[in-house]
Amino acid sequence: MEKLIELWIEIKVIEMVIGAGFIGLILLSFIVGGIYHLFAGGMVSWKRKKKNKSHVSTRI
Q1: Is the dihedral of CA 22, 25, 30, 31 positive or negative?
Q2: Which pLDDT score is estimated for 30?
Q3: Which of 3, 35, 44, 60 has a C-alpha 20 to 30 A away from that of 29?
């Protein structure tokens, strides 16, 4: 009976670790995705601003 309880506890611990790892992976992908999105968006807007400035200077 004790062996069965020990095994059940071990399984629950493993389930918790896997669950936490899974949640961690999801959170990590969200964080990385968010940072990448901000960085990519920033680069695009920065390039666009640079282009706009050059257009203005060529027009004058």
Answers
A1: positive
A2: 93
A3: 44
